Amino acid sequence: MLEYEKIRQICSFLNDKCDVEPEKAVVLGSGLDKFSQAVEPINEIPYSDIPYVPVSTVQSHVGSLLVGRLNGKVIAVMRGRVHLYEGNAPADVVRLLRSIIIWGASHVILTNAAGGIAPHLAPGDLMLIEDQINNQGVSSLTGFNDERMGTRFPDMTTLYNEDCNTDIMACAKSVGVKLHRGVYAGMHGPSFETPAEVNMLRILGADVVGMSTVLEAEAAHHMGAIVSGITLVSNPAAKKGGPKITHESVAEACAKGGDSLIKLLMAYI
Ligand code: HPA
Fold it and tell me: What are 69's strand-pairing partners?
């Protein structure tokens, strides 16, 4: 079956479940689930109930789609995502997000936890994504291109929307949240990087490194949606002689540092 047909089926499933159309989609990364408590729920659907949508196998990802209102706006919140490293194909990773865009969301806000590479970034800091390096070895646009979703060779010059970034920066200032700006590098994972890989990414121009987001951003931009991304720095990226990085320590740092990201999202939306 064509990817577009699967996505259409998901859309009609979501339409049957919720009698509303979301304006925005928010994807919550590791340890950032607390944001969902701020949303006034209309309906919540486990990923396992949604046709053709893979289930997240990562502990800290709840694995459900929350549709609800925030400041009166209808939003769709992905409480966790699926990754390439779980064994999913690139199209699987972005299928639900693509469906939410066709359902009605014209703006997607991607959040994630990542290791800080740039020396000025410390755990707990927030970084607005200005651009990305997809170092996952594959694009989410791989394979047959269905023109109903987007063009074969999309321009990526302004992948992360600059006008929205200006607004998000202004919003951060108005609510007293410090927000850095920089480049997110997406690695395949699931291992954290070696120190040599982190050095390589720094030379390439990356400020933070994670294992998600880049495929979602590509697919959403391909479909003409506005893309924004915010990173919570959960740990210093690997370095020789540095501390060991564990998933638990990342999740713990997010639980502690996530509040400012949530405050910013709530103010911005
Ligand atoms: N590397 C990759 N992904 C991550 C990291 C990291 O250091 N921290 C949180 N997600």
Answer: 40, 74
Active site (catalytic) residues: 30, 61, 83, 85-86, 113, 211-212, 235, 247
**Distance, CA of 248 to CA of 186 (rounded, Å):** 20
Give 104-148 pLDDT, tens digit per residue. 999 999 999 999 999 999 999 999 999 999 999 999 999 999 999
Contact 115 CB / ligand 1 (< 6 Å) = yes
Is the C-beta atom of 58 inside 6 A of ligand 1?
Answer: no
pLDDT digits (tens, 9 = 90+) for 167-198: 999 999 999 999 999 999 999 999 999 999 99
User: First CA to last CA across the chain, in angstroms?
Assistant: 36
Among residues 83, 105, 78, the alpha carbon closest in space to that of 93 is found at 83
Structure confidence at residue 30 (pLDDT):
77
Q: CATH assignment of 3-268? A: 3.40.50.1580
Which residue's alpha carbon is nearest to atom 10 within ligand 1? 114
Ligand 1 centre to CA of 211 (Å) is 7
The neighbouring-strand residues paired with 28 are 79
Partners of 70 in the beta sheet?
Answer: 73
Q: Is the CB of 64 under 6 A from ligand 1?
A: no
State the distance from the centre of ligand 1 to the C-alpha of 10, rounded, in angstroms: 31
- Does the CB atom of residue 211 touch ligand 1 within 6 A? yes
Please give the Cα distance from 194 to 114 (Å, whole number). Answer: 14
Angle among Cα 93, 96, 99 to the nearest 5 degrees reads: 130
Contact 191/211 with Cβ under 8 angstroms?
A: no
C-alpha–C-alpha distance, residues 214 and 242, integer Å = 27
* Gap from CA of 71 to ligand 1 centroid (Å): 32
